[in-house]
Amino acid sequence: MWTYVIIGVVAVLAVLLCLALAIATSSFENYKQKLEKINQMPNSMRLSTLEYVEEINRTYFDGKLRVAQTKQYDDHYSGGVVALSPQTMYSNSLASLAIVSHELGHARQDYTGDTLKKHFRMRRAGRFCGLFFMPLLIIGAVLSVLGVLNILPRMVTLTTGLVLLGLSLLIFLFAIVLKYLEIKIERQASDFAMDYLKDILNTKELKACKELLNSARLTYWASLIRTMLSWTRLTPKDSMFK
């Protein structure tokens, strides 16, 4: 009886691991392919991204957002500014509308609460803590081994080593929590994006935009999985506090 249970658990874990590895290794390429495809599809309203941003700005933000220009592939929102590349700003593709709608979703988060500000502060703290992750891990492991082998005073050395290892583990868990919270933030921004888009796009266009946003969010799951499995060397390396 227990043999079958153990085999079943192992099989489920193996399937989940394979699924996680597939997401970690293929999600970025999948997003790129969808982006290239949807970028070739103009919206039925023939509305430029800049015109769209100005309309959303008037409707939802009382015209308080500012639009700035940035380099290609660096479209983003930060501190009341929607930064768009010329390629996005003057495009009428569904991909451009979906991307900028997502950034406007972040603007809405910033406009209605402090979710983004809190997350930014936590991530900044994480980057600082991340500087100590590897030193704590290495020193903790070395001291623990020296303590176990009685090369140095056993109790003091082993205790210190385990404490340092524990601190490195806490930093690792902090990185995992931050990445999970980021996924929730990105999902809410995408939900806001769909709220904006449903007023101007037809059902087919909305479906294409939703697929692109879902594919983009999957890259955040990939980042989380890469961080969780970084110690296994089964996935490409990913920054803990990117």
- The geometry reads as elongated
Give the strand tally.
3
Helix content: over 70%
- Roughly what fraction of the amino acids lie in strands? under 5%
Uncertain runs = none
Largest sheet: 3 strands, mixed
As laid out across the biggest beta sheet, the strand order is: 1-3-2
- Whole-angstrom Rg: 23 Å
Number of helices: 8
Q: What's the pLDDT, averaged over the residues?
A: 89
Helix/strand-derived class?
mainly alpha
Separation, N- and C-terminal Cα atoms: 46 Å
Encode the helix/strand succession as letters: HHEEEHHHHHH
Condensed summary:
The chain has 242 residues and is mainly alpha-helical.
List the helices and strands and how they pair.
Layout: H1 2-38, H2 49-61, E1 66-69, E2 76-78, E3 81-84, H3 86-89, H4 94-112, H5 115-130, H6 133-148, H7 154-197, H8 203-228
Parallel strand pairs: 1-3
Antiparallel strand pairs: 2-3
Could you walk me through the main structural features you see in this protein, from its secondary elements to its overall organization?
The chain has 242 residues and is mainly alpha-helical. It has a domain at 2-42 and 113-232. Helix content is 72%, strand content 5%. The protein is built from eight helices and three strands. It has helices at residues 2-38, 49-61, 86-89, 94-112, 115-130, 133-148, 154-197, 203-228; strands spanning 66-69, 76-78, 81-84. A three-stranded mixed sheet has the order 1-3-2. Helix 1 (2-38) crosses helix 8 (203-228) and helix 2 (49-61) packs parallel to helix 4 (94-112). The longest helix has 44 residues, at 154-197. It is elongated. 26% of the residues are buried. The model has no long low-confidence stretch (mean pLDDT 89).
